[in-house]
Amino acid sequence: MKAVIFDRDGVILDSESINMSSAVKAFKELGIKIKDEEKELIIGRHPDDYGKFFLKKYEFSYEEFRKIQSKTYYELFESAPLFKKTVSLIKKLYKQKITLALTTSSAMKSTLQVLKKANLENTFDVVITSEYYKKRKPDPEPYLVTANKLNLSPSECVVIEDSPVGVESAKSAGMKCIAIPNEFTKKQDFSKADIIVESADKINITLLDNI
After folding, report:
1. How far is CA 139 from CA 55, 61, 73, 100, 133, in A?
2. What is this structure's pTM?
3. What is the pLDDT of residues 49-79, one digit of tens each?
4. Rounded-to-10 torsion of CA 198, 116, 23, 106
5. What does 140-187 look like in DSSP terms, one character per residue?
6. Domain co-membership, 187 together with 163
């Protein structure tokens, strides 16, 4: 293991709740009440991705949906709490001089806000956001771009993810992956992950080296 790569949403920032709330509110304002099983499609995905499914099933303006969803998301964004155990792990690894990266489907602007909030502004060697690639997770491109920026082979990287979508992306890129399911993803299928832990404080150098 030469580098540890962290996902952002659901791993560092507890933002799955606002992702879900903003989508549900937008659909409701457009006269659509989505079912509980349909909500599973929202978790860990960008609106442009889960929107394709809903457009096949319901009739609505995606542009109007995104306008409402995005506005609601950013109204709630500042209040989203951090996963303190993950932040603590990142700081410990940084002190141990482990190469660190962040790979997210979110934009650079909001990611910089998260890093500032968590006091992690100068911690990551590489930060890869949606501006750096064309295909989002579960496609491997985000993690392949990260490995390239780190000048490392994918097999030398361990990824920390919270959703099966992210795990699939990491594994398809040829990386090891540790899953930390959260409240919104804990019932999903993590069979592709190399290891599943309940929280970031269960991760240490020994685990990372032996994965």
Report:
1. 21, 26, 24, 21, 10
2. 0.89
3. 999 999 999 999 999 999 999 999 999 998 9
4. -90
5. SHHHHHHHHHHT--GGGEEEEESSHHHHHHHHHTT-EEEE---TTTTT
6. yes
Instruction: Name the nearest CA neighbour of 89 among 211, 205, 207, 200.
Output: 200
93-138 confidence digits (pLDDT tens):
999 999 999 999 999 999 999 999 999 999 999 999 999 999 999 9
Greatest Cα pair distance in the chain: 52
Residues 69 and 84 reside in one and the same domain: no
Closest CA to 146 of 129, 162, 161, 165: 129
Q: Are 128 and 103 in contact (CB under 8 A)?
A: yes
Please give the structure tokens belonging to residue 191: 């069979």
Output the CA angle 157-101-178, nearest 5 degrees. 50
- In the numeric block, which tokens belong to residue 153? 């082979």
* Residue 177 structural domain: 3-14+80-210
Q: What is the DSSP letter of 130?
A: G
- Interatomic CA distance for residues 142 and 129, integer angstroms: 8
Which of 77, 99, 116 is a domain's end point?
77
Q: Residue 50: which residues within 8 A CB-CB, separation 6 or more?
A: 23, 41, 42
